[in-house]
Amino acid sequence: MQKVAILCNNTMPYADLSKYCQVFESMQTLDDSIRNEIAKEANTKFEAMNNVDKLKKVMTLLNNYNPQMLSLISENYTGRIEQNQIDAFYLSFVQYLNRLRIQLNMAGVNLDN
Q1: Torsional sign, CA 24, 26, 28, 34
Q2: How does residue 6 score in pLDDT terms, banded at 50, 70 and 90?
Q3: What is the pTM of this model?
Q4: What is the C-alpha radius of gyration for the chain, rounded to an integer number of angstroms?
């Protein structure tokens, strides 16, 4: 029997623009075995991608979560306790994406080819 874990939908608190934060929060509530299974599957799919496709995906996410978008997301939570948590999540998320971009670039991967 296949298990289903809903990580983000429109009824959850951080849906819409902050959906990746919602997915992260939802993952934290899952049993370790389910969380590890999801992470393993995601890592397997990512590792199966060629480096150019990885860089394209990273650049798409960086373009989508640009400073203006991050500011808009933060403004949606102004004055709420969640604002610091969401800001910290997206700061970490963008830093991670930038590290991936740099690693791929250092490996000779670029989108100019």
Answers
A1: negative
A2: confident
A3: 0.86
A4: 16
How far is it, in rounded angstroms, from Cα 49 to Cα 27? Answer: 23
Neighbours of 90 (CB within 10 A): 19
Tell me the C-alpha distance between 62 and 56, whole Å.
10
Distance in angstroms (rounded) separating the CA atoms of residues 92 and 100:
12
Instruction: Give me the amino acid identity at 106.
Output: M
The tens digit of pLDDT for each residue in 41-66 reads 999 999 999 999 999 999 999 999 99
**Residue written as token pair 């990885």:** 54
Two structure tokens written together for 85:
């948590």
| Cα 6 from chain centroid (whole Å) | 16
What's the token pair of residue 81?
Answer: 């306790």
